[in-house]
Amino acid sequence: MTSNNDREILMRLAGEAAEIAALPAQEQKRQMWRDLNALKPQRPMVMIDQVCWNEMNVDDELTLQCEDKECRRYEDELRRMLYQWRHFRVDMVVEPFIRVHKAVSNSGLGISVEEDIAVSDPTNSVVGHAFINQFNTDEDLEKIKMPVVKHDAQETARRLEVAHQIFDGTLEIFEQGMDPYLSVWDPISVWMSVEGALYALVDRPDYMRELTGRMVRGLTSMLDQAESQGLLCHSQSLIHCTGAYTDELPAPGFDPDCPRTKDIWMFGLAQMFSTVSPAMFEEFEIDVCMPIFERFGLVYYGCCDPLDRKMAEVRKIPNVRKISVSPWADEERSASEIGKNYVFSRKPNPALLAWDDFSEKEVRQHLRATVDVCERHGCPLELILKDLSTVRYDPARLWRWADIAMELAGAEA
After folding, report:
1. Looking at the whole model, is its pTM more than 0.90?
2. Domain-embedded: residue 413
3. How far apart are CA 362 and CA 265, in angstroms?
4. Domain that holds residue 80
5. CA pair distance 167, 164, nearest whole angstrom
6. pLDDT tens, position by position, 205-258
7. Total structural domains within the chain
8. Strand 128-131 vs strand 115-118: parallel, antiparallel, or unpaired?
């Protein structure tokens, strides 16, 4: 039972969120994201995500006061949202609801991570990893299991009841299904280490084909189970840190009680493939993952991996709409390849906020170069600042970055 004190804290925060969510600006921003995702942008869009929240607390704005663990999760979510709205809102949308996640369990593919960890800042969740290779023999392939997806309806009902007790009268309740993470190579990079996996691609390509084939069969089974049980998400607000609003989804025949993969976005990535050839990228990522890609309504592709030399392969992904342009990509080449056909999803370099001295001039030049190259090539543009490990405990750096980015995007003051 939620204590009166916890409920009062959450109702107050939810009330603030509801007032913000009711502002006309929210629907205006949703429409701007729809226009961008339709490749008809009003202007470049700006988002900030994956923030070093351990360095952000100013005047106890983020200090949790609830006692109950479940309440503290809601409180943390609301405080971060309100903080971002106050200090670096850029083109965020504040929704008039609180998401309550269905109690879905997924047994996974059967492998746990074995690693050594190095910690530099104990308050920061970003740590160093040294992964141990667990795939050396043919027998090791048997470690991969088919996932089992289950729904604990009783636990979901309990979560919804608690949420209604807390938020009724302030925020609506949105029952949130699975938003599946479907990378093949991110898991392999932690099961084998990046070095181990790259060597195996060269030395044991048949072994890696078998490994990835088993993974894709497992992920496909997971999606089939989630679909058949009505456990997938729908009506996404975000896809990989960017606005997911679109008039193209869901697909005809949509049933909110039983969403399908073709009703939603997915994002794909092969970050450890930054240095492999386009031919290897096509064979071991595009061809391998095609059974997954082709199921979804729209696809956001890429993350930190530079794709400027692999666009011929990326274009083979059905329904790909947004393409990541990482700090390590050549922007001129990326823009010439992307043109007006996809969203140029630029990831500005977060290192500019981590130097000893913060240079607004460097930030402005960095962002101006992106805006200029996209204007020359007619690219629909979004600026997505993410992967912020540190701002040197100076949150104002992030606030100022947001102001500069919105100015260069042509946003009204």
Report:
1. yes
2. no
3. 34
4. 4-408
5. 5
6. 999 999 999 999 999 999 999 999 999 999 999 999 999 999 999 999 999 999
7. 1
8. antiparallel
